[in-house]
Amino acid sequence: DQDVLAHKLTQYQEKGVTKVKLGLTDVDGVMRGKYVGLDKFASLMAKGGGFCDCIFGWDVDDQLYDESRYTGWHTGFPDAHFRLVADTERWLPDENCPFFVGEFVGSDGGHHPICPRSLLSRMLERLGEKGLMVRSGFEYEFFVFQENPHSVRDKGYQNLTPLTPGNFGYSVLRSSVESDLFAGLMDYVGAFDCALEGLHCETGPGVWEAALKARIGVDAADRANLFKTFSKVFLQRKSLIGTFMAKWSMDYPGQSGHFHFSFEDEQHTNLFYEANAEAGVSSLQRHAVGGLQRYLPEWIAM
Fold first, then answer.
1. What are phi and psi of 43, to 5 degrees?
2. Fewer beta carbons below 10 Å: N end or C end of the chain?
3. pLDDT, average across residues 219-246
4. How much is the CA Rg of the chain, to the nearest whole Å?
5. Is residue 52 classed exposed, middle or buried when 0-12, 13-18 and 19+ CB atoms within 10 A define those classes?
6. Distance (Å, whole) CA 235 – CA 230
7. CA angle 255, 258, 262 (to 5 degrees)
């Protein structure tokens, strides 16, 4: 709507905003993006834009994957069309800048064949056709190091120094000593609508665990991706590094995360709960768990 866009631009100008930040998800689920001026932002909101599709063929070191067929030198890395998702607007207070999530679209204006966010939207639409919505809650375990982007490379990514030594899961002592970091991270991500339900030490040197508030549909995935990206931003500004890799050393336990989900109907009734069932577990949830138990070994083998 042009009137809504014009009003938004007026608000930005009154706040002294000169730029907008946008983020798009690459083939590995990593957020890429850029700043754009207000005129460009207005154009993107009105008709979308183009973003080099190399991010569907490169790894996180911008190296082309072997035998990449979707894009590469053989295609000339053309631009892929994307749109900005208006209702993902959030504010980055330390940058005096709004942020928007973008989503790639196909040549026909529909879903993109590779874009992770587009693929998720497609699956959620299929569930929606059956009257179902997904409510998801993500938990992430991650390592925090007393390092910077240069020091980790100088060390060859070995013998890194964790923020804290030893094992001490759920430590009130450590979270209190480092309260500026713990409270600061919760406030920082909460300020741009990625609120955490909890944040604590996990078992292992420098290991933290963060639980995001549950949300409906693709909104939960957006918040999870934004948390992973901007928690690293927060830590690097504190001369630290955070990593979500599963295992950085054979000397310590690996870290992972948890994905909690339930199905809801259009009235937001939790269909995984049944008051009179054993442990409150509905037949739908038992069916879903049974399906996972049946197919998970096959998926792992693949």
1. -65, -40
2. C
3. 96
4. 21
5. middle
6. 9
7. 175
Tokens 């035998």 locate to 67
Chain segment 125-168, per-residue pLDDT in tens:
999 999 999 999 999 999 999 999 999 999 999 999 999 999 99
Query: What is the residue whose two structure tokens read 């000593």?
Result: 177
CA distances, 50 to each of 33, 61, 84, 112, 126 (Å):
12, 22, 11, 13, 27
Torsion angles phi and psi, residue 115, rounded to 5: -50, 120
What is the residue-averaged pLDDT of the chain?
A: 92
For residue 291, the model assigns a pLDDT of 61
What distance lies between CA 175 and its chain's CA centroid? 24
Asked which of 44-48, 84-88, 178-182, 280-284 is least confident by mean pLDDT, the reply is 280-284
Give SS3 for 10: helix
Q: How far is CA 257 from the centre of its chain?
A: 13
Is the pLDDT at 116 greater than 70, yes or no? yes
For residues 85-93, average pLDDT = 93
Q: What is the rounded distance in angstroms from the CA atom of residue 234 to the CA atom of residue 232? A: 5
pLDDT of 256 reads 82
The position carrying tokens 């009235």 is: 267
Residue 114 φ then ψ, to 5°? -125, -30
Query: Would you give the DSSP letter of residue 55?
Result: G
How far are the Cα atoms of 35, 71, 80, 85, 118 from residue 24, in angstroms, in the given order? 12, 17, 11, 11, 11
